[in-house]
Amino acid sequence: MRKLNQRFRTGFLHSLHWFFAGWLAISVAGAQSISKQIIVDQFGWRPSAKKIVVFANPVNGQNNGSPYTPGSQFQIRRSSDNSTVLTGNVTIWNNGNLHTDSGDKAWHGDFSSLTTPGLYYVYDPANNLRSYEFEVRDDIYAAALKASARTFYYQRSGTAIPAQHGGNWTHGPAHTQDANALLYTTSAQAGTQRNVTGGWYYAGDYNKYIPFLSSTMWNLMVGYELRPAAFPDNTNIPESGNGVPDLLDELKWELDWMLRMQADNGGVHSRVTVTSYDNGSDDPATDVQPRYYTAITTWSTATFAAITAHAARLYGNYGGQYPGYVNTLRAASEKAWTYLEANPTMLPASGTDGASTAAADAGSNANDDKRRRVAAAAELFATTGTAKYKSYFDAHYNDVNGTSENGFHPFSNGNLDASLCWELNRAYYVYAKASGATSAVVTAIRDKFKSTMDWPLESYHTQKSDPYLGFMWTGHYSWGSNLQKALWAILPILAVDLNVNPAKNALYQEIAEEYLHYFHGRNPLSWTYLSNMGSRGANAGAENSVDEFYHSWFRDGSARYDGASSQFGPAPGFLVGGPNVYYGGSSAPPKNQPAMKAYRNWNTSYPEPSWEITEPAIYNQAGYTFLVAYFTSPGGTTPPPVISASSNSPVCSGQTINLAVANAPTGATFQWSGPNGFTATVANPTLPNAGTAASGTYSLTVTPSGGTAQMVTTTVIVNALPPATATSNTPLAAGQTLNLTAAGAGNGASYSWKGPNAFVSTLQNPSIANVTTTVAGTYTLTVGRNGCQATTTTVVSVTGTNPGPEPSSLIIYDDALKTGWVDWSWSMTRNYNATSPVYSGTKSLSLQNTAGWGALYLHAETAVSLSTYPSLKFWVHGGPNAGQRMQVVINSSGSYEFTPKANQWTLVTVPFSAVGNPSTLRDIFIQDVTNNAQAAIYIDQLHLVSSGSTTPPPTDPAPGGLLIYDDALKTGWLDWSWSISRNYANGTPVKAGSKSLALQYTGGWGGLYLHPEPAVPLASYARLQFWVHGGPTGGQQFKVTLNGSSQGYTVQPTANAWTLVTIPLTNLGSPATLKDLYFQDTGGATNSVFYVDNLQLSAASSARLATAEPDGKPVVRVYPNPVDRQQTTVRVSLSGFRPNEAVELKLTDLQGRVLRQRPVTVSTTEYAFPVGQLAPGNYLISVQGETTLITKKVVVE
């Protein structure tokens, strides 16, 4: 394909003489065979680079059946006409001796004098053999760099890869269950949900690690810093074209995930993992098993601190696209360092995160932990200039005992190593370039880099110790040897940038570039170690690129993605692990091979661990990306793009088919056709709500302006949704076994059950033995097949044997209406002997309202004194439907409303203080309040509670305090909340009085927002105080702030317990007045319900002086407010912001969906913001500054 493109570039306008001469040359060339013993960089060379071809005679190893001896001369021939452009001498390597690591005897041919751009091959006229083609061009590695950088996009977690950006390599939304991951220690910890979505899969499986990112992120970031022009904004990732280099967009995808892994105390959780490698099909979206995050470790925290500090130096020019991001990264890094200061030795001391899961735990040891701290100190000093980071680095950079690795340390051995102590190598480089670094320390570091270049790098290069000109120790051809090869090349590049020996900078660059050719095919097996770079993949040349590697997406046997016989082969650009002389399997090859031939183009699984040979990893990829970027120039002549058609196939019935064309010339016209008479004339049409009949071939004719039409096709598969039917053996009695049953959905189907008590199962027909009433409720079944999913539910009810009422209680109903009580009900059917559901004992009381205002009316024949009974309690069950609204009335005076829940028992407590504090009980009414017939509800354990089990009465505020909520929101307070449900009259649990405030976030980042009118002066108050209850699960997390301040206090309620929260106002920014009170979710996800009671301001002590709100504090005003929907803009007034501060204005609905946004640089005090055509309702305008986030409610009428 590349030859054809070159010919089009060159043109066909030859004279008849040259036509026949070219025809003759092509005929001769057609008799030539490509020899893998004439070994070149299959992409090519830069015009100014040194150019060496290797001729190899394979004496030992897997290719020794192809003996070869070159002639005394070689030719460089132009591919377009097979003419000879250069003739050179073949020189023998090392006097004809055998090279042990490769098993080869070798010769070299130097053609560095060839500098004319073009497409060529090496020809051995003595043997009539030729090499693979290569090009000479300034930007010859641009395509390889692009493909390598795009592999990180393919490794994205928590998203789909659509055809628009992924080409033939697509999948649906994958691992979105990370939004609700649980902490895994020795087992999954209930109530610890955390949003850990995003990031990159670290290798060929779907785990995500913090510790493994130290080299990954550093090599990408420094590679960008050294060659920023090599990284454009047009590599076709979703963010392309936003004015930010695509590599920085890609890095941000990983950084955002890293930020989600940081806890409030600054520590960083180690990884996201699974308990099984049973991870679906050749589509990551089919892996629906639960995922977990693991404990905080100091080594992951130090890694995080180093990376985020470095990243904060990269985004300063992109505040418009990513406002406040620099400050976010810097603050997160310093917060991590604070955690490290509080934990000066490795934690956990075991060196593991303690989670026994299916994946490696990314462990550490004391020296590794300290090396990472040294790196973090260097990065933080380079970013902040703060003295404490410099002091830490100066104190520990040469700590041989504390930071050596396997007995090696640069300051005891006198030089750096390409495989050991890389955290120190990176730290040394960063510190040596940092402004204000201690000069004596910098001198010592530069000396170690120079010594490393003197030996071993320059020495072995000059001696040509490796005939393939990329020397490394034999033992470095181990698992992941391709990263090791890149690290050998990176050392001279860093030495050049530090200018340790200016006279040899050109030599050091030559050394590094020779290593690059190894990856591109100049190695003993002639493999280009990047995947699918030829005509059916990246179309970048290198036709002998690997086409199989171990990866869960492109898995063994995939008809689409595995190997040469598959439909597409794997995604382009992935760097395989490389030769591994220590391979643990038995298959030969790669077993029993010379070190450099211990490789196999291979994708298989146990008992042959091909992952030890071919598995890619983001850290290997980053090392290569650094290296190839350093030698990549932007622009230049590139092959003309190949027009292609693609889709997001396969899709599921009911989804949208997205058809796409790539590389169409500007001004072209399009004509699509397909099944069922489909036609379209746009470039990228869509077919919504597709059915299985839409499967088939879609043809696209692209007609360039003034050019020749070209037809391309793409195949679309629409898979039917699998049948989903769920049943059970409900109803059950306590102690029996629950059997859940899913109807069979065919071969290859997967089943995922979820239910009460965090129940999960991937069995088709799971069971739960010895059930209690806690397992009652709704069970959700998700059936997956061919990448499609269907969901259904089944309801389970259990007759219980729960404990009865307290012994001192007075029973009214429990299995029967007790003696002394008379039923005078109306418009209400009653069954005192209902057998299901039952909370305790063997029976419950079934009630069903048959007409408006019907009631259960129980009359005590003898009035009951309430002097020792402060409340009435009972359990209620809403049946399968729920939604009934009922009230309790005592003695025809006062009322208490409740609503049962579907398929579960809930406790109702009616304090008599809420119904007028009667002295005696004569009548109990449980009455409908809807004036409609309703579905049945169930009552059990109706009783009066003795005084030992009641809740206290409503409380007055502390002396001098101010109540905000206690049984009701107090007068003068307005509720402007968003994405949170509120019940100010919740009946249970209650800390004080008869009601509490029930809260549940219904969308990410929801907030309880209470606004007083007028503002409350705070001179008389010292703290904000309230009780909080985490409900049955706990795990919620919210931040309390005042007046939009960035200062806040994070609260984590405790499950099944009330705890008192007391927040000094000094922790909330010490405002002079209270204008807004926020309880905002910090997890970004829907959470379970929690409860707040007795919310108040408490008085200041006499020693406290009121503090005024500081001058210059940012203030935001929005007017007019309310605004008429016909008005196109509102005015947003900004005061107190720093001049030229980068600020983003954002309009969202109450669910947090962004509707409008506008980045501004503060240069005036007022800005117009568009609100036209909004539907009437409530909205939020947020103003995100560099240190402040302020949110205002806007009403559109």
What labels describe this entry?
single chain; 1197 residues; alpha+beta; Immunoglobulin-like; 10-stranded mixed β-sheet; disordered N terminus; Secre_tail
Our count of helices gives 18
Whole-number mean pLDDT: 88
CATH superfamily of one domain: Galactose-binding domain-like
What is the number of beta strands?
66
Over all CA atoms, what is the radius of gyration?
A: 36 Å
CATH class of one domain: Mainly Beta
CATH architecture of one domain: Sandwich
Uncertain segments are: 1-30, 635-641, 948-956, 1101-1112
Give me the secondary-structure category.
alpha+beta
Largest sheet: 10 strands, mixed
Helix content: 10-25%
The assembly state of the depicted protein chains is: single chain
Task: Please explain how this structure is put together.
The chain contains 18 helices and 66 strands. Helix 7 (298-311) runs antiparallel to helix 8 (325-342). The protein is elongated, with a radius of gyration of 36 Å. Among the domains are: 2-137, Immunoglobulins (Immunoglobulin-like, Sandwich); 645-719, Immunoglobulins (Immunoglobulin-like, Sandwich), CATH 2.60.40.10; 726-799, Immunoglobulin-like (Sandwich); 810-949, Sandwich (Jelly Rolls); 962-1099, Galactose-binding domain-like (Jelly Rolls, Sandwich); 1115-1196, Immunoglobulin-like (Sandwich). A hairpin with a 3-residue loop joins strand 21 (669-674) and strand 22 (678-680). The protein is of the alpha+beta class. The model is unreliable at 1-30, 635-641, 948-956 and 1101-1112 (pLDDT under 50). The longest helix is centred in the middle third of the chain and has 25 residues, at 439-463.
